[in-house]
Specification:
The chain is mainly alpha-helical. The chain contains 13 helices and 3 strands. It is globular and about 50 Å long.
């Protein structure tokens, strides 16, 4: 396998202006993909799609929302291992409900590590607060992001592995952000998102990450107001109001944290293309994943 360049693996030299422009470019790219999907669904533009109300878009009661996420996580084909890795991970996952007192500030879903020895499995925390105001278009992509065990869990648990040859500071860093978003894109490549609404939900989540590049730098570099951030969300997405408000709070209070997802995903895609260019016909996606996210660093998962 070709030796991958690592100089930018855990940081970026991009300036705030460059990140802002990168975000604008990514928003434009994702918007074009979303428009293609809504045209496929019979809508002439994004505005008419956002105004429409369909059963797929309406949210479900709390227990049903959690159950839907469980179903996606436990689908028989949620581990397309042979297509993406040579040595699948076998980490167990549980789906849990965000505590009521955290619902207002918590994201739609989040992954929480299990213990390094496997005695307590990792779990996905699903936010069921204000369910009547939430959409369920992104349940499939959320399940892949938070629970794709063959790829994402290997990377998440890299930092907690007792045998990893990593400094403690890097084990504590939340390195999985870039891998989680890459796993979403990988889901399309291995056959997920067959339902156009589900694929739209995937693109909408991708749009969320692209918008972050714009509005985070808007907040902390260009001195945008809170209303400017909220307006930008609504202008370029159909993300529900509950999420818009909680995400805006997050960016204002935690500068640059949310930028790692999209920047990291793009870096992984860059490295993958680099490997393809170097290897040509010898390129194997499984070999790339084993090289960049080696299972050998946590043998207790395999």
């Amino acid at each position: 396998m070709v030796c991958l360049p690592r100089e930018r693996e855990h940081h970026t030299n991009l300036s705030p202006e460059e990140i802002h422009q990168l975000g604008l470019d990514q928003v434009k790219e994702v918007e074009s993909k979303m428009l293609a999907v809504v045209n496929q669904l019979g809508f002439k533009d994004m505005k008419s799609f956002k105004a429409a109300s369909t059963p797929t878009q309406n949210s479900t009661p709390t227990h049903a929302r959690r159950s839907s996420t469980c179903t996606q996580v436990r689908r028989p084909d949620v581990r397309p291992a042979a297509a993406i890795v040579r040595t699948p991970a076998k980490a167990k996952l549980e789906v849990m409900q965000v505590e009521e007192f955290r619902e207002k500030e918590a994201s739609d879903a989040a992954y929480v590590d299990g213990t390094p020895d496997g005695s307590r499995p990792g779990h996905i925390m699903v936010n069921t607060g204000d369910f009547a105001k939430r959409t369920v278009l992104d349940i499939e992509t959320t399940a892949i992001t938070k629970a794709c065990p063959d790829i994402t869990c290997r990377f998440r648990l890299r930092r907690s592995c007792p045998t990893c040859a990593l400094p403690p500071a890097r084990k504590l860093h939340r390195l999985y952000r870039r891998m989680a978003l890459y796993a979403e894109r990988l889901g399309k490549e291995v056959g997920f998102y067959q339902d156009p609404y589900s694929y739209y939900g995937h693109l909408q989540d991708d749009m969320l990450r692209a918008i972050r590049l714009v509005v985070d730098t808007g907040f902390h570099y260009k001195h945008w107001t809170r209303q400017q951030v909220v307006d930008y969300f609504h202008e370029h997405s159909a993300i529900d109001e509950v999420t818009v408000q909680s995400e805006t709070d997050r960016y204002s209070a935690w500068p640059a944290q949310a930028l790692g997802y999209k920047i990291g995903q793009l870096e992984i895609l860059r490295l993958r293309q680099y490997a393809k260019d170097q290897l040509g016909d010898k390129f194997d996606i499984r070999g790339f994943h084993d090289e960049y996210f080696p299972a050998a660093r946590f043998p207790w998962m395999c």
